[in-house]
Amino acid sequence: xxxxxxxxxxxxxxxxxxxVSIPEIEENQVLVELHATSIxxxxxxxRQGYLKEMxxxxxxxxxxxxxxxxxxxxxxxxxxxxxxxxxxxxxxxxRFGTYAEYAAVDEHVLSHLPExxxxxxxxxxxxxxxxxxxxxxxxxxxxxxxxxxxxAGSGGVGHYAIQIAKSFxxxxxxxxxxxxxxxxxxxxxxxxxxYQEEDFADVLSEFDIVIDTLGGEIQEKSFGxxxxxxxxxxxxxxxxxxxxxKHEVKAGFVWxxxxxxxxxxxxxxxxxxxxxxxxxxxxxxxxxxxxxxHELSETHHATGKIVINIKP
Length: 312
Prior knowledge:
Elements: E1 2-6, E2 16-19, E3 29-39, H1 41-48, E4 61-62, E5 67-74, E6 86-89, E7 102-106, E8 110-112, H2 119-123, H3 126-139, E9 147-150, H4 156-167, E10 171-176, H5 181-186, E11 191-194, H6 200-203, E12 207-212, H7 216-222, E13 226-234, H8 241-247, E14 250-253, H9 260-271, E15 279-284, H10 287-298, E16 305-309
Helix pairs in contact: 3-4
């Protein structure tokens, strides 16, 4: 099968096309014929070597941790999925990712993909959507009426976080650039903040939850808009515990734990029309396509999600 791999850490030129063996599945796995995957910052951070101490993989490494496709074969212990099922998943982290035509995926991270959701829409969801859900539901314990600030609302995690928060009946503020105001507002945002023109810290106060997708100074200033007992979930860097204690808030770094049942809940939101995938950019499964996709993701200015179409 065709796969895009890296054989050493480095720049986007390390992404090369190879012919590799179709994965052998274990008894608790299914073989998925991939129709689409998507790009996430973890892809190029791993490619550049930033995560090599935490994820010590042997080369060659196939990047990519979003999957949408069709089950071609099911392991002997698989109970919920069979050949021909449409599925999507955020596979467990391994050196055999989803920049490929097939992937072996553990049953517990798989979800059935409703017919009304396209493969590219589905491929955009798992890593970013589950991260947003874990921040809001599992960490921050969101409830109706909470006031939620989502930083970088036009990004992958951000645009899902807005919609998940709205599904709980929250009041949602979001930061983004002015060029993204129209479509981000259409997601249900109650207060849009064009970060190029106004400072969120000057106009917001007494919020219950902050979703930090940026870190640094933005994270530091976010503590000041939270009420006592508020929650700050960061996906980019561990918050300072002393600062959190000073402001009397709960703050933590959220590292995604893939879960097929929670992914199914997001699929249900999509079926009900309460959540959509903003696919802002599409590329094909090729050296050129993946290199351009990584280059775009590294700018931090992609609109919505970057999807890789694998099977036309």
